Amino acid sequence: MEKLQRARCTAAARLDRLPILSIHRKIMWIVGIIFFFEVADVNTFAFAAPAIMKAWNLSISTISFIVSATFIGMFFGAVTGGWFSDRVGRKKALIITTIWYSGFSLLNAAVQGTTGLFITRLLTGVGVAAMTVICMTYVSEIFPAKQRGSYQGWVMTIGLAGIPVTAYVARFTVPIASWGWRLVFVWGSLGLLVLLFANYLEESPRWYDNRGKLAEADAVLERIEACGRAEFGDLPPAPGTVEELISGCGYADLLAPAYLPRTLMLITVWIAQTMGFYGFTAWVPTLLVAHGFSLVHSLAWSAAMTIGAVPGAFIAAQISDVWQRKWSITIVALVITFCGLMYGMTFKVAAIVIFGFLVAMSIQTFAPLLFAYTAECFPTHIRNSGCGLCYGIGRLSNVFGPLIVAFFFNHYGYKSVFIYVAAMWLLVALILGSFGPLTKGRTLV
Question: Which segments within 307-408 are labelled E, that is strand?
Fold first, then answer.
């Protein structure tokens, strides 16, 4: 692949010397709220599914077929979204994909029949996954190295509040009528409102720099540095001029000898964690109903469990930049393995809620850590493509995840589903603990 060599003061070095500024906090809130409605949208079908199943007289297998559509869409969205962002920029891609997922979420509310719902969930999944991988990269690139993991956690703390809020929206809207589930999808489309504040977002200077758009990179950096001088006075001196190699973008780079082992390791981790994550979160309400609990009680208990998402991301914000993320991720995956098994082995309401809360909390401690870690494992010119490929293949694998859950439930019962989920999380811990590189505090090149 053709390479350019040029002398410059890197955007990475100029950004990494800065303290956290008000402009960073504005970006944190805007991206966090975009992520809030993205997370809300991802979870809408999980909360609407029991009501749809009753209203349309559907089987667990049919519900799993519709769930699979979301993950097919997520694969295409993650892979194309990462590629798209590496070419047009993080900010523009973030805005376009937010419009996409919000618009199709609204269409979910109007759809009639399983075929139509399959199509709209697939197209919603495209936007949801594309936005997620762009957000993952954008946060890693716009914040200084010493705080990027923590702020990935803060963004997700804001965003993951969308899970319990959506759960309670579903709790009160779904039972009001046979069509109440449609209001949950309307709720998931409200990410469109955040675009009113999109002008406060800055393009990633690292992306500009890497694409050779030095004037644009300097303009963004000067705005950020001016904010820093206004808030802190003199800033640390900019580092000296350095030589850097910049290569073109392409998925072929991800398969080059330098990155192939890392790419394969992260793909495997994303497959296993996706199976484990959605094997639990997407099926809890439906499995509780199928096991004999009422729809109202299932939604109420599921909503109580999801409150754990917010403290989970808050914990990630506290620990992400303290220890090596490789080891934090490994330990949290083991905690999820244990709590998930305990959840599946009991039918006592108190134990279901407590262990469900702990699983929800630990999963959302895990997610910001893995988001930050994945972005750190690739250089700027293929960062979003790498994140998109790993995230996308993980989501594509879960096309089969709902079918596996349905198989275990139908043939081996309720407990077998949670043994399968625990096995996926144990696999994550073993692979990342054995093969993951150390990344904490490294300058992103």
Answer: none
Q: Are 163 and 306 in contact (CB under 8 A)?
A: yes
| Mean pLDDT value of segment 363-377 | 86
Give the start-end residues of each E strand in 174-302.
242-247
Q: Give the predicted TM-score (pTM) of the model.
A: 0.74
Tokens of 178: 């046979």
Number of alpha helices (DSSP H) and beta strands (DSSP E) in the chain: 20, 2
CATH C-level class of 3-435: mainly alpha
* Distances from the Cα of 292 to the Cα of 296, 340, 347, angstroms: 12, 20, 11
3-class secondary-structure state, position 180: coil
Using CA atoms, how far apart are residues 303 and 167, in angstroms rounded to an integer?
5
- Backbone conformation region of residue 250, classed left if phi is above 0, alpha if psi is from -120 to 50, else beta: left
- Residues for the chain: how many in total? 445
Report d(CA 275, CA 395) in Å as an integer: 8
pLDDT per position as a tens digit, 229-264: 998 888 777 665 444 444 455 667 777 777 888 889
Domain ranges within the chain, ordered by starting residue: 3-435
Distance CA 198, CA 91 (A): 9
Instruction: Provide the residue type at 419 as one letter.
Output: I
